[in-house]
Design goal:
The chain is an alpha/beta fold. The chain folds into two domains: 314 residues, Adenylosuccinate Synthetase, subunit A, domain 3 (Adenylosuccinate Synthetase, Chain A, domain 3, Alpha-Beta Complex), CATH 3.90.170.10; 98 residues, Orthogonal Bundle (Adenylosuccinate Synthetase, subunit A, domain 2). It has twelve helices and 20 strands. Strands 9-7-5-2-10-1-11-15-19-20 form a ten-stranded mixed beta sheet, sandwiched between helices. Strands 14, 16, 17 and 18 form a four-stranded mixed beta sheet that branches. The chain is globular, with a radius of gyration of 22 Å. The N and C termini lie close together (10 Å). The protein binds inosinic acid. Inosinic acid binds next to helix 4. The site of inosinic acid (IMP) has 20 residues, from helix 4.
């Protein structure tokens, strides 16, 4: 089973994974790095996890950081320590793919320097070095965990990389320094690796064994469909394949071994960072969604942009990911709105053409306008409701209209941040 973000991330995947993880033996992350931020509540404590799957909060679940990820060793150890402090022991339950790429300090410096240079055209990255690390992966210059060793050959590779990156930072990006010292980068990595080495293994074989033994494996997506490097709103995207296909390449598991794709859908739309957002609201409804929905990034604390539900965009998500089930989150945020809007298609005013898909061409994206269908708001609390028939009739109508427009079954509705604040409409296992 894959749990995927269907919009621009921050759909509430962490809570769903945490809930479903109770029934699986393995949770696998397959792309991204510590740009992700999954907020989960556990024993009334709030956790924000950036790298380790939220499944780690279930004591019997083992967690994998797959080969498709880019991993910052220091950030990983900070997370391990934070979990330990909260009483969650990861020993024997956390596995890092030996083929995953490492994020090194120069990746973060390059990420920040590029954004500074881009000025108002910046992507609005999380500054965690994600893009530069994936670039090195694609150019085959990056370092994979399997090759980290305390040998002259590896030391030479670090020397060469640090030297090249310092030149790039200074002469191309105009950075004023201070610049990195190769010896320090190498020594820090060796110190971190002493603690990380026991987690490193061939995770693809491990996942295969789990599936062959008929145990349930959950693949946890990070970010969202429209931040996908290929299928997202390029160039305002992240640098990995956030869509369901990424679960196979990013973990080494064949497509025919995966049968369910749960698309996590927020009851409205949000986006962090720059880029197109057809249903964005710049009015009091937008402010309402932002404040009632506490729409601030879990990783960077930035305010998220808010807007109406975009069914046109979501239909694309259903197609690209092969979504078999929908998990609707943050329904309760809409409790205080008199009128709700759902975008059903866009209109290109230049041609008067009705668009029932998200166009790739930037000029059309910039001029097209969303066309809405209006629904009456239920204006009563749904927070914490756990049974479908206890929901207000108008809330049910909203949910069913979304399922109808997307042509996919609604299998779960989340009515609050806690595990128990959930309506399960189907048994997944
Ligand atoms: P990067 O992944 O740091 O390179 O950032 C690229 C784009 O993806 C920016 O618009 C970020 O705001 C966005 N982004 C990255 N990770 C997340 C996430 O976990 N949730 C929402 N947006 C994200």
């Amino acid at each position: 089973m894959i749990v995927i973000g269907s919009q621009w991330g921050d759909e509430g995947k962490g809570k769903l994974v945490d809930l479903l993880a109770e029934h699986v033996s393995l949770v696998v992350r397959f792309q991204g790095g510590n740009n992700a931020g999954h907020t989960v509540m556990f024993d009334d404590k709030t956790f924000v996890l950036h790298l380790i799957p939220s499944g780690i909060l279930q004591p019997k679940v083992r967690c994998v950081l797959g080969n498709g990820m880019v991993i910052n060793p220091q950030a990983l150890l900070e997370e391990v320590d934070q979990l330990l402090e909260l009483g969650v022991d990861v020993r024997g339950r956390l596995f890092v793919s030996d083929l995953a790429n490492v994020i090194l300090p120069f990746h973060m410096l390059i990420d920040k320097a590029r954004e500074t240079r881009a000025g108002k055209n910046k992507i609005g990255t999380t500054a965690r070095g994600i893009g530069p690390a994936y670039e090195d992966k694609a150019s085959r210059e990056g370092i994979r965990f399997v090759e980290i060793e305390d040998t002259p050959r590896f030391r030479e590779k670090i020397d060469r990389l640090v030297n090249d990156k310092n030149k790039y930072l200074e002469h191309v990006l105009g950075s004023q320094g201070p610049f990195l010292e190769a010896g320090q980068v190498f020594d820090d990595l060796m110190v971190h690796m002493q603690r990380i080495q026991p987690f490193v293994c061939d995770t693809a074989r491990m996942i295969d064994q789990e599936i062959t033994s008929n145990n349930h494996v959950l693949f946890e997506g990070a970010q969202g469909t429209f931040l996908d490097i290929d299928h997202g709103t390029h160039p305002f995207v992240t640098s990995s394949n956030t869509t369901a296909g990424g679960a196979c390449t990013g973990s080494g598991v064949a497509p025919n071994k995966i049968d369910q794709v749960i698309g996590v859908v927020k009851a409205y739309t949000t986006r962090v960072g720059s880029g197109p957002f057809p249903t964005e609201l710049d009015d009091k409804d937008g402010e309402y969604l932002s404040s009632v929905g506490h729409e601030f990034g879990a990783t960077t604390g930035r305010a998220r942009r808010c807007g109406w539900f975009d069914a046109c965009l979501l239909k694309e998500s259903v197609r690209v990911n092969g979504i078999t089930d929908l998990g609707l989150t943050k329904l309760d945020v809409l409790d205080g709105l008199k009128t709700l809007k759902i975008c059903t298609h866009y209109l290109d005013p230049a041609t008067n053409e009705k668009l029932d898909y998200f166009p790739h061409r930037l000029s059309i994206q910039e001029r097209m306008v969303p066309v809405y269908e209006e629904l009456e708001g239920w204006m009563s609390p749904t927070v914490g409701v756990t049974e479908y028939d206890k929901l207000p009739k108008l809330a049910v109508a909203y949910i069913e209209r979304i399922a109808e427009l997307l042509g996919v079954e609604m299998s779960l509705v989340s009515t609050g941040p806690k595990r128990e604040e959930t309506i399960l409409l189907k048994s997944f296992f």
